[in-house]
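Colleagues,

For the teaching module next term, I've prepared a clean inverse folding example: a structure given as tokens, and then the sequence designed for it. I'd like students to try predicting residues themselves before seeing the answer, so please don't circulate the second half yet.
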């Protein structure tokens, strides 16, 4: 049974593509506010740190009323997933709005969240926003967005998504890219028609997964989530399934729903509703609240283990206290423990001395955000350099790896390849856009990412975008800092070929010889498909600073024989010499010298 009076929609957008303005326009045009009521501050607005880092850190909710249907808009964190938050938040939704700037197009930061949304089966609606911009290129942006959905979709229906063109700033939307006026009604219509109402069994006993926590100085901790089954009412008896396996009995205090950006007190809420519940003081994110008759909690989202740690220490230097407020170890400890309550991927342990705490998190960025947030709150303390957390696997030492997604101007290609090969990154994909920008995917040990963000920002002149996704533990990738090199030799007839790539991540130079001439270029990507190997080569002008680090290149010809897909992929990933003979080689961007 599906409810028709409610829609739960996640909103996915790159920072600055207009998420806030869009939700604001929807709120203004819905019946949440009386005509003379001020909408006030732009809603869902990112905090300054989010804006600086180009990522969204915290998820928030808004509810909009349209034609008797309540639309819950669920904000999603834009970038790094610090502990299953993205998945938990998306779990509340049945559909998603993917907001894309009509001039900029889809950005790699949104890819991760979109992929998760599609994996969870959410129905997508593409909103091409800022259609009023003079440099808007809606047709191209739609194509790029469709490509992305095509690549990530997990279900048939997701490929048949509605497209709405909008100017959130001017408050209109339409189904044609030529729309220049009107209101948001077409977007409301798309949400009502294309996002299914929540599945619910109102007769079942109450169950709700706690997705986020709110704090209130009077009420303490407030659990927010979507009701899966049954109903919840104030003063109702419930139980909490704690993470540690324990179960406790509680009585619900108040039940709140959302109206606009406010909370409103409810006498009852049903399966499908997103609510905030008081009365369970120690509840944690990911736990289940349920009717006392329930025996099984809802599936919680598995937490990825922390990959990076650093030590926080009371700053006892004589200069401490000049800028921030001097903190004692007790204050520091209390602040960190408070953080752990909501920042669930974070761990805090006591350090070697009473003034030290070891803080572990998902990655350098995760910890850097905490450090920065605390500093902005006025805490003064010292931190050590972040270190990865190693572990012993069945075959020896293992370390955490990430998938690194990069988008950067093509001119930064040489710099990136060099910087990353030195950090043990292996390229797994590369795509040159028409817009003069390249998109790369690398697998890289988390260790190799430490300090990379700054190098990246400088090296791409601030024009690059990077994003990481956690892959898991893999065998230790070796010491960072040494360069090895390899080469691939190819001829256009496909007979000549390949030379061993000593450690594919450092595969350096491509020699291509149509006829007798030898061309050199930097291999920046290999894609194997059936018996074809697509080789992406960057322009010779980027080669200058690479030659030096790829000095000893041996060249060998091997007899023609098409490689299997596995062989071709081995070329990309193996840590030893391999020989490959693609039947044909296609060269993109081949401006070689
Ligand atoms: P968010 O980071 O995704 O929440 O983006 P915002 O809603 O804060 O918008 C970022 C910037 O884009 C702001 O300066 C907005 O005024 C502007 N903006 C948002 N929507 C539109 C639009 O439809 N047209 C134009 N021209 N600008 C817009």
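(Answer key — instructors only)
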């Amino acid at each position: 049974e599906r409810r028709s009076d409610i829609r739960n929609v996640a909103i996915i957008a790159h920072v600055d593509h207009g998420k806030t303005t869009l939700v604001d326009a929807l709120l203004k045009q819905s019946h949440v506010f009386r005509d003379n009521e001020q909408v006030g501050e732009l809603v869902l607005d990112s905090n300054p740190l989010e804006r600086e880092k180009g990522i969204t850190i915290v998820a928030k909710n808004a509810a909009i009323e349209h034609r008797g249907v309540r639309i819950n808009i669920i904000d999603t964190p834009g970038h790094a997933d610090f502990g299953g938050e993205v998945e938990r938040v998306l779990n509340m939704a049945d559909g998603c709005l993917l907001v894309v700037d009509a001039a900029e197009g889809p950005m790699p930061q949104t890819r991760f969240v979109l992929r998760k949304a599609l994996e969870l089966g959410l129905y997508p609606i593409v909103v091409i926003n800022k259609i009023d911009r003079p440099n808007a290129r809606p047709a191209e942006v739609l194509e790029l967005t469709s490509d992305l959905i095509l690549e990530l979709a997990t279900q048939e229906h997701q490929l048949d998504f509605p497209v709405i063109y909008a100017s959130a700033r001017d408050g209109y939307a339409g189904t044609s890219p030529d729309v220049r006026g009107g209101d948001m009604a077409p977007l409301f219509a798309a949400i009502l028609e294309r996002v299914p109402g929540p599945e619910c069994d109102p007769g079942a006993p109450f169950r709700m997964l706690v997705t986020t926590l709110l704090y209130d100085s009077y009420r303490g901790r407030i659990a927010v989530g979507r009701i899966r089954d049954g109903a919840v009412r104030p003063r109702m008896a419930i139980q909490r399934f704690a993470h540690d396996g324990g179960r406790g009995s509680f009585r619900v205090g108040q039940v709140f729903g959302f109206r606009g950006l406010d909370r409103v007190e409810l006498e009852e809420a049903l399966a499908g509703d997103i609510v905030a519940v008081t009365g369970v003081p120690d509840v944690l994110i990911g736990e289940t609240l349920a009717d006392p008759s329930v025996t099984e909690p809802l599936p919680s989202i598995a937490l990825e283990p922390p990959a990076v740690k650093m030590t926080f220490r009371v700053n006892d230097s004589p200069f401490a206290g000049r800028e921030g407020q001097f903190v004692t170890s007790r204050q520091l400890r209390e602040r960190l423990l408070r953080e752990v309550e909501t920042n669930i991927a974070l761990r805090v342990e006591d350090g070697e001395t009473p003034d030290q705490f070891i803080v572990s998190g998902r990655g350098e960025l995760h910890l850097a955000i905490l450090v920065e947030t605390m500093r902005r709150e006025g805490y003064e303390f010292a931190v050590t350099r972040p270190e990865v957390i190693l572990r012993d696997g069945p075959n020896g030492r293992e370390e955490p790896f990430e998938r690194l997604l990069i988008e950067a101007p093509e001119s930064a290609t040489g710099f990136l390849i060099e910087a990353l090969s030195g950090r043990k990154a292996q390229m797994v994909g590369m795509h040159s856009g028409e817009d003069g920008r390249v998109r790369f995917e690398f697998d890289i040990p988390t260790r190799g990412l430490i300090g990379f963000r700054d190098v990246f920002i400088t090296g791409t002149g601030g024009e690059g975008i990077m994003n990481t996704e956690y892959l898991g533990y893999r065998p230790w990738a070796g010491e960072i800092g040494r360069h090895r090199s390899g080469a691939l030799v190819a001829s256009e007839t496909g007979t000549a070929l390949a030379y061993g790539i000593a450690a594919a991540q450092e595969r350096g130079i491509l020699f291509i010889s149509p006829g007798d001439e030898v061309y050199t270029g930097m291999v920046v990507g290999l894609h194997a498909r059936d018996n074809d190997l697509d080789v992406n080569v960057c322009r010779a002008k980027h080669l200058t600073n690479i030659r030096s680090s790829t000095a000893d290149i041996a060249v060998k010809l091997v007899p023609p024989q098409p490689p299997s897909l596995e062989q071709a992929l081995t070329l990309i990933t193996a840590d030893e010499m391999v020989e490959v003979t693609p039947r044909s080689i296609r060269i993109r961007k081949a401006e070689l010298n």
